[in-house]
Design brief:
Distance between the termini: 7 Å
Number of domains: 2
Structural class: alpha+beta
Number of helices: 6
Order of helices and strands: EEEEHEHHHHH
Strand content: 15-25%
Shape: globular
Number of strands: 5
Length: 148
């Protein structure tokens, strides 16, 4: 049986380098397509140039980068901020948005997602109703079953 390796809602895995991030070392970033105004490419990354989007490349690609320290998006205040961004109506892909909100606000989700494919292949998630698989108690069980 595996034990959780990440501290829920305090540590994440960098979308750029795959190393662990503590809230104080993290950035939440995304970009806006200048031609459409749509926002996408949501990522949790280290606040280091090697992990961040390259703003010059985004500019060349007709995109504008948006980012802020990760601590602005966690906790109650962070959820309010995330909902305000959603409410603006510029999110291109709501599923992509939902994924990052789960990562930031659902206990054990960040770590459980590492084992999601294996759990699906085993049939572990069969019969789930689109809600139950995201409940923290079920996510913790998934980590205990598949974590190494």
């Amino acid at each position: 049986m595996g034990k959780p390796k990440l501290i829920p809602l305090k540590q994440w895995v960098c979308d750029s380098c795959d190393e662990n991030i503590d809230v104080d070392d993290g950035f939440f970033e995304w970009y806006r397509e200048d031609s459409t105004g749509k926002e996408k490419g949501f990522r949790i990354v280290h606040n280091k140039s090697r992990c961040l989007y390259d703003p010059r490349q985004l500019y060349r690609d007709g995109k504008s980068n948006l980012d802020m320290n990760l601590d602005a998006f966690v906790g109650r205040r962070g959820l309010v901020t995330l909902l305000s961004i959603l409410d603006e109506g510029n999110i291109e892909d709501v599923k992509e948005w939902t994924e990052v909100v789960r990562r930031l606000h659902v206990d054990y989700y960040e770590e459980a997602r590492m084992y999601w494919s294996e759990a699906q292949a085993d049939g572990y998630l069969d019969g789930s109703n689109g809600v139950s698989e995201f409940l923290p108690s079920n996510l913790k069980e998934l980590i205990q079953k598949y974590g190494r």
